[in-house]
Design brief:
Elements: H1 3-29, E1 38-43, E2 50-56, E3 62-67, E4 73-78, E5 84-90, E6 94-98, E7 101-108, H2 126-144, H3 160-174, H4 177-180
Parallel strand pairs: 1-7
Antiparallel strand pairs: 1-2, 2-5, 3-4, 3-6, 6-7
Helix pairs in contact: 2-3
């Protein structure tokens, strides 16, 4: 290997090492990801027609659960280590928040796998449409703290139950600590 080849190779290795070092510095400068608060709703196996709401990642010592449509509020649920579980609740769409966390929608756990629907299957029940709309309305509105029209394909009106849920979800988000600043 001649002297010119060695210089080119050495320069290339120096640039590569410098780039690797700066990438390492950038990666170390990022704060470690803090898990966001989340919660879920599952069927209560002990009590028919009831649900269990569980959450994790909350910063507050206690959590307040709120049912959609003003159907109930459960304040002061202990959340040791940022986690909570509350059983035997009415089957509703819920949001959870603490003094240090914005309101988050409690996602419904996936239902057990069922066979693919046949072409003659009816549309989802009204309460499922409402739940889906509520979650979307809450999510869309919490992102901007402004009520925006739902994002639906052109010339396709949403299901009335979905729209009602969307409106209530947006209303809940606008009244949350995150959007009111209190």
């Amino acid at each position: 290997m001649n002297r010119a080849s060695c210089l080119v190779l050495t320069a290339a290795m120096t640039v590569t090492a410098a780039c690797a070092a700066s990438l390492g510095t950038v990666a170390e400068a990022r704060p470690s990801a803090v898990p966001a608060a989340s919660c879920s709703v599952t069927a209560d196996r002990e009590k028919p027609d009831s649900v269990v709401v569980s959450g994790e990642g909350f910063k507050g010592a206690s959590v307040t659960l709120t049912a959609a449509g003003g159907d109930g509020t459960w304040p002061g649920i202990p959340a040791p280590g940022g986690s909570f579980t509350r059983a035997s609740l009415p089957d509703h769409v819920y949001t959870a928040e603490s003094a240090q966390d914005p309101a988050v929608g409690c996602a419904r756990a996936a239902a057990p796998q069922s066979p693919p629907p046949s072409p003659q299957t009816s549309p989802p029940p009204a309460n499922e449409q409402y739940r889906t709309g509520y979650q979307q309305g809450l999510k869309d509105t919490l992102a901007t703290c402004e009520k925006n029209p739902p994002k639906t394909p052109k010339n396709l009106a949403p299901d009335p139950n979905w729209q009602s849920g969307y409106d209530k979800g947006a209303e809940a988000a606008l009244g949350s600590k995150r959007c009111t600043g209190s």
